[in-house]
Amino acid sequence: MLKVKNETEQAKVEGGEEMKVLKLTIDLVPETSWYDNLRSKMSNKDWDKLRRSTYAAYDYKCGICGKDNTQLHCHEIWEYDDKKHIQTLKGFIALCVMCHHVKHIGLAGILAGQGQLDFEDVIKHFMKVNNCDEQTFHEHYDDAFEIWNKRSAVKWKVDLKQYESLIQKQES
Q1: Contacts by 100-108 with C-beta closer than 8 Å and gap 24+?
Q2: What is the pTM assigned to this prediction?
Q3: Beta carbons within 10 angstroms of residue 120's beta carbon
Q4: pLDDT digits 0-9 by tens, 123-165
Q5: For 37-61, what is each residue's pLDDT tens digit?
Q6: Strand ranges inside 83-162, DSSP E
Q7: What is the distance between the alpha carbons of residues 102 and 110, in angstroms, rounded to a whole number?
């Protein structure tokens, strides 16, 4: 059974007595919170500044797999309070395209169904970064979707307080 630690970028896999830390995890935003994020509340110009500063903070490398000289995406890092149903934006990380596909594996599945992405490549990337087998991937995948289903059944309060000044800047 896989245990996901949503407050960090890691998960622990319980395999007998060993505990393996996953560097790359699947992070599914509850359906009830889709498009309710900082990016949607900022101007494109301000989002570009933020994402570029995130890339610089990660030395223009993927913050998970370390790949450099590649296209990067700015990924929002969320923390979930499952009792109070509060989803808090904690920060940002620069991700390569494949790590970002793993994070948003639901969208990756849709793109694969449309012939725009090879889903097997996404799985292989997860296994390579985590130095794990396909069974570990599937256990993590199933657990992530189980959590997503539970979280998607409720309305979340999205907490962007830490970044309020960026939102107000746009509205001025």
Answers
A1: 100/73, 100/75, 101/125, 102/24, 102/25, 102/26, 102/126, 102/129, 103/24, 103/25, 103/26, 103/27, 103/75, 104/27, 104/28, 105/26, 105/28, 105/141, 105/144, 106/28, 106/145, 106/148
A2: 0.83
A3: 9
A4: 999 999 999 999 999 999 999 999 999 999 999 999 998 888 8
A5: 888 888 889 999 999 999 999 999 9
A6: 86-96, 157-159
A7: 13
Q: Name, in order, each residue with C-beta under 8 angstroms of 168's C-beta and a sequence gap of 6 or more.
A: none
Confidence of residue 63 (pLDDT cuts 50, 70, 90): very high
Token pair of 58 as six digits: 């990660």
- The strands making up 18-22's β-sheet, listed across from edge to edge, are 2-4, 11-15, 18-22
